[in-house]
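Long-time lurker. I teach an intro course on protein structure, and each term I like to show students one example going from raw sequence to a predicted 3D structure in token notation. This year I'd like something fresh instead of my usual example. Would anyone be willing to generate the tokens for the chain below so I can use it in lecture? Attribution to the forum is fine with me.
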Amino acid sequence: MRPSPEVHDALACLLSYPCEGGTGMLYPAATERLSRALPELADDLRVFTAGVSGLDAGQLEELYTRTFDNVADRSLEIGWQLFGENYARGALMVRLRVLLRENGVPEHTELPDHLTHVLSLVGRAPAPLASALACGHATQAVDKVLAALRSYGSPWVGVLEATRKVLGMHRVDDPPRGAPPVPSVASELAR
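-- Reply from a regular --
Happy to contribute to a lecture. Here you go:
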């Protein structure tokens, strides 16, 4: 079962900077939407909810910044996680920008390789591309961030665990007989 674009958008919301009066205020609605759509995510989301409950907007912004910003091993930019600061990351960002536009995903203040953009893209892209992105670059980057977050002790561990599960729902293990093969991430991004 392929998760809906709304599931991907709710995860993207939970991984977005919690600006005062904005995204952070949407966290409870996003966790509720995810728990209803995919009950198997509820335990992971409780970890997040427990970790951020009782924080005011300023504390939530500070926690997000300490968790993700200016910390290389916890960066939510998948290109950075996979390639560092080199040509391959630049090429990935250029391709992602095109794919975002082609699939009607508006860019915001983050770079095109930010996990929030990639999640929205995976939710809207045709199945072969969504599978290639979700099961390739996105999952590899999420795994790296999760490893760093576990040792840091962040409430966003629960959100990234839920994200990993949703990305895994895009896996195409055995395409029907005679169906074209699922393209590799490299071939989909190189177009």
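Some talking points for your students: The longest helix spans residues 127-152. Residues 174-187 have pLDDT under 50 and may be disordered.
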